[in-house]
Amino acid sequence: MVSVLQSNPSLKLKWHYLEFCQKILGHQYVITNENVIAAVETATFETSQQVRFVIQPGSPQEVQACLKAAQLFGIHIHPVSQGYNWGYGSQVPDENLSVVMNLSRLNQIKVDGKNATVTLGPGVTQQQLFEYLRSNYPHLFFSLTGSSPYSSIIGNAIDAGYANGLNVIRWNHVISLEAILPSGELLKTGFDALPNASTAGISRYGLGPDLKGLFRQSNLGIVTEMTLELSLAPAYLQIFYFSIDEEEQLGELTDQLHNLKQTGLIESNWILLHGYRILAEVSQFPWQETDAQRTLDRNLMLKLLRQQQIPGWSGVYNGVFAIYSPTLRHAEAMKADIHEVLNNKVSRLKTFTVDQSQIKKLRWNRNLEIPELTHKLLKGRLLTFAGIPVQGSIPISYWRKRNSIPEIMDLDRDRCGFIWLAVTAPASGTDALTIVPVIEHFFNDYGFEPMIVLDGVNSREMYVMTSLVYDREVAGRDEQARKCFERLAAELRTMGYYQYRWPKALSVENALPERNDDYASVFAKLQSSILGD
Ligand SMILES: Cc1cc2nc3c(=O)[nH]c(=O)nc-3n(C[C@H](O)[C@H](O)[C@H](O)COP(=O)(O)OP(=O)(O)OC[C@H]3O[C@@H](n4cnc5c(N)ncnc54)[C@H](O)[C@@H]3O)c2cc1C
């Protein structure tokens, strides 16, 4: 967040702001400890931004006071909700010498059980909301990302995050929010600020322009509260697992999944994961069997994957989606229809069904056995689609690490190299077959395994995501990863595939082509009127 006074913050000003924050927040919530600062300056890729110190306000009023003062002192503020933005920059600010505002103390949760909504603070994690709903509103659940259970919901929504199952693109399910601008002004969207408004917290749009979009991926203000949609727990949850053996089948399968989604048969997102990605979820790089300097050979990858004996998932691409049913009749009819459509498009197809009482038990004890669901990876996906936090797909980050995966995974601390390259594309077989070989070519060139994921997030669009996964301890790999990212992103842009989320702290050439509108000048005007530059 840029201040009104663009004066070079001198050491003197820095100390003034520090003292101000100490006075307002108390010394324990102004962190200057070198080890903590070093951790906050560390991401899953190379960065050079330095952090002055970290502040942890405990109320919106404290956020407001700290923002107003920052503007006077000419200090950049970088907000994080929980700071688990792994692969996109972790807690590292975009601007050098920022103060990081950690909002994890703002963790209030309020649920409207009748209208299935939750109003929460930025510090609320996926795990906290899960536990709260399990104890207080067992008929409701919240969709989960594949990231850490301790990552936030608000930070994820603001940074274009997406979840699995229902309510996939988080921002689409934000009803309203409260934000504080650098001037200290407070803004509420929808009808939330009007006295006695009967649709406060349930109506997305008040009168006039919808201002909540200003706060998505913008850093124009700090969101101190957000109201989001929840989902009704289903009577039956079915998970479909399938795979294909030949890359040529990918086009037809993508078209078929798109069709299932467009016709409304599938309500959840559909996901296709490359074999490399699945292998990395269940094992680490086979150091003994191959040359570590190169990309793991495709045939060896498939052999190792098949040794894992994951029912339904042993192909070059492996897919999953879920059906949420209110009745058994609905569940059975959907299963029959989907099997009819998919059977001859895939090499294997398996369905597992759990009912409400099983889901309830799993919510309290995720170690419970599910008959026939023998592999932990498949069970992990079922739990995720049921809104029960697991470790997500975080273990893939340790794929190229020489030591084993620690109990508590911290990618920044453990120097796991991880960069997300995520583009949006039309959900079509032609697009899948156009993009995938390009990613494979670049990854192969630079010696990274193409852990590609195609994710049908809505009935028109798919996210094509791939992650550069490496060991930051290996000299030169940070640089190689950055170059691969830069070149591949540029190539995909020329093909018309743009990133929808960007690791801003990564110093790369983000040369977007010239737009054929006046976005830049319009946004600059908005920015200067909000930030006061
Ligand atoms: C293996 C792996 C799997 C992953 N899977 C997923 C996935 O399935 N879906 C997904 O979306 N992501 C995924 N991620 C990426 C990332 O870990 C998540 O998006 C995570 O939720 C981000 O961390 P956070 O929620 O703690 O947000 P934060 O790090 O707190 O915030 C993210 C950014 O949003 C802005 N911000 C945060 N809070 C505020 C605020 N209150 N006001 C204004 N701006 C704010 C800041 O710029 C901040 O840098 C994955 C990462 C890895 C490594």
Structural notes for this entry:
- The chain has 4 domains: 1-102, Uridine Diphospho-n-acetylenolpyruvylglucosamine Reductase, domain 2, CATH 3.30.43.10; 109-232, Uridine Diphospho-n-acetylenolpyruvylglucosamine Reductase, domain 3, CATH 3.30.465.10; 236-398, Vanillyl-alcohol Oxidase, Chain A, domain 3 (3-Layer(aba) Sandwich), CATH 3.40.462; 416-506, FAD-linked oxidases, C-terminal domain (Vanillyl-alcohol Oxidase, Chain A, domain 3, 3-Layer(aba) Sandwich).
- 31% of the residues lie in helices and 20% in strands.
- The protein has 14 helices and 19 strands.
- It has helices spanning 11-25, 34-40, 60-73, 126-136, 154-158, 249-262, 275-282, 298-307, 328-342, 356-364, 376-385, 429-446, 477-494, 519-531; strands at 30-31, 51-55, 77-80, 98-102, 109-112, 117-120, 140-141, 174-180, 186-188, 222-229, 231-232, 236-244, 270-274, 317-325, 348-355, 416-426, 451-456, 461-471, 499-501.
- The chain has an 8-stranded antiparallel sheet with strand order 15-12-14-13-17-18-16-19, with helices on both faces. A 5-stranded antiparallel sheet has the order 5-6-10-8-9. The chain has a 4-stranded mixed sheet with strand order 1-2-4-3.
- Helix 1 runs antiparallel to helix 3 (60-73).
- Bound molecules: flavin-adenine dinucleotide.
